Amino acid sequence: MRVLITGVAGFIGSTLALRLLARGDSVVGIDSMNDYYQVSLKQDRLARVAEAGGERFRFHQLDFADMAALDGALQGTEFDRIVHLGAQAGVRYSLENPQAYVSANLAGHVNLLEIARHRKVEHMVYASSSSVYGGNTQMPFSVEDRVDHPVSLYAATKRADELMSETYAHLFRVPLTGLRFFTVYGPWGRPDMMMWIFTKAILAGQPIPVFNNGEMFRDFTYIEDIVSGVVACLDNPPADDGAAKAGGSTKPHALYNIGNNRSEHLMKVVELLEESCGKKAVIDFQPIQPGDVPATYANIDAIQTELGYAPTTSIDVGVPNFVRWYKDYHGN
Asked: What is the 3-state secondary structure (H, E, C) of the chain?
């Protein structure tokens, strides 16, 4: 299979590319390599993919929100399916730089839908987010829940992506699958996420900011489990048969939660980080931040039943794995 991956230098994108290359697929990768976080980490991820892929990997550095650049780069390039993971990430940053989200997450998503439509691709899998559930209090979150009260612009753009995808599935019968990711972590992760921020601070003896006075719960999902779910979705496009799909669409458009199906107390994760780092954390308790939600918890019945998705990595295994990688990467 020939797969186009956007955000290929990102955390999930690079790990997915390695998995697809390992099973013999070819990958065309796109990434803007922007400086939202350190570009050197993206370059290092990309180098791993290029080494593994050889001639089966091609890379284009471009902003997929620029349709002319995207179309031009892909001229003469064949691909069967798309995994659209590229986006402007981060809840808190959306309060500071909303235009970045409008460009990448709205205009960029439409551009990929247009590529999928005109290239008549077999299937496009795209990244949504657990953030679409907003302040929902009924746990666990189900893809059947209403999600029309987002509490951040980031969440609103991800919900908009789902709605635009439904339109393309309806008008043009493009097979689409949206994945609502729940707190992904693991080796080669993102520096703007809690696991990295806390590990870095604990090792340096600096305070860690713990919001909502520690009363936070997250469905932490290990990267390899996430990628297994993405691949299962990629290999199984929703049928255009009029039957209701996960998420309620009768078009060829499915929505799945992709999480660990466990909601962990934040302070338990802090304890595991302390054990793995060999140091106690200096905790700076703070109130909950604007746009944050106190708890996430994924109901994964749909993706389990339909695609056999079964996450296997508990935080007791995943957190030490991340810390070992972090220390090795930074030469600690």
From this structure: CEEEEECCCCHHHHHHHHHHHHCCCEEEEEECCCCCCCHHHHHHHHHHHHHHHHHHEEEEECCCCCHHHHHHHHCCCCCCEEEECCCCCCCCHHHHCHHHHHHHHHHHHHHHHHHHHHHCCCEEEEEEEHHHHCCCCCCCECCCCCCCCCCCHHHHHHHHHHHHHHHHHHHHCCCEEEEEECCEECCCCCCCCHHHHHHHHHHHCCEEEEEHHHCCEECCEEHHHHHHHHHHHHCCCCCCCCCCCCCCCCCCEEEEEECCCCCEEHHHHHHHHHHHHCCCCEEEEECCCCCCCCECCECCHHHHHHHCCCCCCCHHHHHHHHHHHHHHHCCC
pLDDT digits (tens, 9 = 90+) for 213-239: 888 888 899 999 999 999 999 999 999
Q: Is 256 a catalytic residue?
A: no
Where do the domains of the chain lie?
2-188+220-261+297-312
CB contact burial 37-51 (16+ within 10 A = b; e otherwise): beeebbeebbeebee
Mean pLDDT over all residues of the chain?
A: 94
pTM for the predicted model, two decimal places: 0.95
CATH of domain 2-188+220-261+297-312: 3.40.50.720
| Amino acid (1-letter code) at residue 233 | C
Of these residues, 154, 185, 256, 326, which one is catalytic? 154
CA distance 255 to 279: 41
Q: Do 147 and 159 meet the contact criterion of CB atoms below 8 Å apart?
A: yes
Sign of CA dihedral 70, 76, 81, 83: negative
Taking only the tens place, the pLDDT of each residue in 152-177 is 899 999 999 999 999 999 999 999 99
Q: What is the pLDDT of residue 175?
A: 98
The Cα–Cα gap between 241 and 305 comes to: 19
